[in-house]
Amino acid sequence: MPSKNKRFNQKKVYVAPVKPEPQPLGERKTIEVPSIVSVIDLADIMKLPVTKVIATLMKNGVIANINETIDVETAMIIGDELNFEVIEKEETEEKSNIAKEVEIEEDLSKRISRPPVVTIMGHVDHGKTTLLDTIRKTSVAASESGGITQHIGAYQVSVPGENKKHRLITFLDTPGHEAFSAMRAHGAQITDIVVLVVAVNDGVKPQTVEAINHAKLANVPIIVALNKIDVPDTDPERVKKELSERDLLSEDWGGKVIMVPISAKKGQGVDHLLEMILLVADMKNLKTNPDKKATGVVIESHKQMGAGPLATMLINDGTLNQSDTVVIGNTYGKIRFMEDFRGKRIKTATASTPVRIAGLSDVPNFGELVVSVDSEKVARQMTQVKSAVRNPIGHIDVDSKEKNLNIILKTDVQGSLEAIKASIDQINTSDVKTNIINEGVGDITESDINLAETSKSMLIAFRTSIKPQVRQLAERKHVKISIYEIIYQLLDDLRASMTDLLEPERIEVELGVTKVLKIFLTQKSEQIIGVRVESGKLAIGNEIRIKRNDEQIGTAKITTLRREQSEVETILAGIECGMGIKSSTKVEEGDVLEAYQVEERIRTLEG
Ligand code: GDP
C-alpha cells in the first residue's frame, strides 16, 4: 500500500507530441515522370502546389527551387509520401517546360549576336584602372564620355569593325575576383572574356596567378595585355616565359593565347587589344534571343536618397522593358525607370547591356540573378517560393518534437548584429530553439515583411527604423515587429515568446481516495455503491480511476453523493457514504476509487 504522501504526489502527464501529418487519403495515383524533371514540372504532373513539392523534397533532405531538376528516383521517394506511384516515362515527343525553354534557346533564327562582356584582371598596380580609363576615353564618343558622371559598374564602348560597322564591347569595372565569386555562388554569367593585365616591368605576381585560376575554373578565355611597354629596359619575352609556366602559351610561341603588348598610359596597342577582344568574341559565337524576357545579374547596387534602392544589372539574355517587373533573389519590383551607363533614361535594353533600374523594394546583392516576369503576381509567387526554400529543413520537419521560433533580425550596425546573435544563441533550450531565417543591417524593408510572412517569423529590430508604408504592409500581413533600444529587453521578450511556444503541461492532481464497501445497484452504465473515504476530499463531477489489486481497470465519474439520506456536494476523509457513478466498468467490493482532476500548467524554459 503506498503511503499517503506518495499517493498525493503530483503525477506529470505530458501531452503527446503533435502527430506527423497524416498521409494523404484517397486512391494512390500512378504518374509517369521523365528520367529528369524540373520541380515545377513535377508539381504540374502531380497537380499539387509547387510549394508542397518543395516542402516534401526538403523533408527528404533535398533543397531545390522551382526550376531545378531532380531525377526520377527522387521523384519516386517524394511521390510515395504524396501518395503517387511514380514510374519512369519513356522519352516521347512531349516536352517539359525546361525542354520547351531550351527549344526557344535553340531556335537559331531568333538568335542574334550580342556584345562580349569583358573583365579586366591582374595584380595590383599593373594598370587595370588606367586601361579601363584609356578605353573609356578613346572609345566612348567624346560627347558621351563627358556625360559619364556616374559609376554603375560597367560601361560599353563602340569599336570600328569590318565594313565600317561599329561593334560594342561591355567592360565590367567591378573587381574581377568579385565577379568570379558571384559566378560561382549564383551560377551567374558575368563575363565572357578576361583581359589579364601583366606589367612587363614586374611580371607574374600572386594576383596574376589568382586571376588565371579563376578564369580557368570558369572556362573563360584569357587575352593577355602585356602592359607598360613604354617603360625602358623591360623585356616582354621574359614575361611570356613566366606565363608559359602557368599554361598560358603565347601564339608566337606556338600556343593559343593572344598576347597584346600595350601601354595603357600612352594608349599604345589599345586599339589592337579591342580588335582581339572582338576576334575572341566571334570565336565564342555569343548569341541572344531578343524576343525573350530578360535575365541578368546584379553588378552594382546601393540606396540613393530620393530614388530608393538602385541596382545595375547586366543583361545576359533577352530584352528588358521599362514596364517589366523583375525578381531579384528575395525581392522584386516593377521598374520605375531605367538608365544606361551614361545616366540617360532608356525604355529597353538588350543582352550584354549594363542598365540601372529603380523601383525595387530592397537593395539586392552583387551577383544575384535577375529575372523579368509577366506580372507582380508572378513575382510575388516566385519570391514566396524562394523564401520557402530558404527555410531550414528542421523547421518543416513535422516529426520533430522540437519547437522552433523563426526570427528575422535587423540591427543598426554589424557589431550589434553579432552581439545579439551570440546572446540569442545562449537562450536556446532543448525544447525551443530560435532559428534566424534572415539577418541584416539597416531599416526594416518590405522584403523583410514578405519573408517574415512566408516563413512565419518574428521580425526583431534593434535600433533601426521603419517607414510608415512598410509598417502598414506589416499590419496588413499581420507580421509582428518588435523594435528595441536595449538588448536585455529584446532577450526578455524573446524568452517570453519562446515560452509561449511550449505546450502547457497537463498535470493530474489527486483529490481523494475511497474504498468500495458495498454495491447497492448496478445498471447498464451506472452504479450506486457504498464507499468509505480513506483520504482527501471527493465531490460530484470528479473523475475517478477504478483500481483493483493496485491496477487500474477503468475510469468513472461521480454523479451523486448521499449521506444519511441527504444529497451532499462533497465528502471528506473518514466518512462512509453512498455514491452514484457513471462508468462502462463494473465496480466490485474491495475496489479502490481515486478521484483526480487535470490541471494545465504553463511550462517554463529549461536552463
Ligand atoms: P591597378 O592597380 O592595376 O588598377 O593599376 P593602376 O591603373 O592604378 O596603375 C598603377 C600605376 O601604374 C599608376 O601610377 C599608373 O599611372 C601606372 N601605369 C599604368 N599603366 C601604365 C603604362 O602603360 N605605362 C606606365 N609607365 N605606367 C603605367
Topology:
Layout: H1 4-7, E1 11-13, E2 29-33, E3 36-38, H2 39-46, H3 50-59, E4 69-71, H4 72-81, E5 84-88, H5 97-106, E6 112-113, E7 117-122, H6 128-139, H7 142-145, E8 154-160, E9 166-172, H8 176-186, E10 193-199, H9 206-217, E11 222-227, H10 236-244, E12 259-261, H11 270-284, E13 287-288, E14 295-304, E15 308-317, E16 320-321, E17 325-328, E18 331-339, E19 345-346, E20 348-349, E21 354-360, E22 369-373, H12 376-390, H13 393-396, E23 403-411, H14 414-427, E24 432-441, H15 446-455, E25 458-462, H16 468-476, E26 481-484, H17 487-501, E27 505-522, E28 526-539, E29 543-548, E30 551-563, E31 566-567, E32 570-572, E33 576-582, E34 592-601
Parallel strand pairs: 2-5, 7-9, 7-10, 10-11, 11-12, 23-24, 23-25, 25-26
Antiparallel strand pairs: 1-27, 3-4, 6-13, 8-9, 14-15, 14-22, 15-21, 16-20, 17-18, 17-22, 18-19, 18-21, 27-28, 27-34, 28-32, 28-33, 29-30, 29-34, 30-31, 30-33
Helix pairs in contact: 2-3, 12-15, 14-17
What labels would you give this structure?
elongated, binds guanosine-5'-diphosphate, Elongation Factor Tu (Ef-tu), domain 3, 607 residues, six-stranded mixed sheet, Rossmann fold, 5 domains, single chain, 35% strand, six-stranded antiparallel barrel, alpha+beta, disordered N terminus, 28% helix
Category by helix and strand content: alpha+beta
Specify the helix fraction band.
25-40%
Strand order of the largest sheet: 27-28-33-30-29-34
What is the total domain count? 5
Strand content: 25-35%
Written description of the protein model:
- The protein has a six-stranded antiparallel β-barrel with strand order 27-28-33-30-29-34. A six-stranded mixed β-sheet has the order 8-9-7-10-11-12, sandwiched between helices. Strands 14-15-21-18-17-22 form a six-stranded antiparallel barrel.
- The chain has five domains: 29-93, no CATH class; 112-288, P-loop containing nucleotide triphosphate hydrolases (Rossmann fold), CATH 3.40.50; 295-385, Elongation Factor Tu (Ef-tu), domain 3; 392-501, Translation initiation factor IF- 2, domain 3 (Rossmann fold), CATH 3.40.50; 505-601, Elongation Factor Tu (Ef-tu), domain 3, CATH 2.40.30.10.
- It is elongated and about 125 Å long.
- Helix 2 packs across helix 3.
- It starts with a helix and ends in a 6-residue tail after the last strand.
- Strand 11 (222-227), helix 10 (236-244) and strand 12 form a beta-alpha-beta unit.
- It contains 17 helices and 34 strands.
- The chain is of the alpha+beta class and 607 residues long.
- Residues 122, 124-130, 227-228, 230-231, 263-265 line the site of guanosine-5'-diphosphate (GDP).
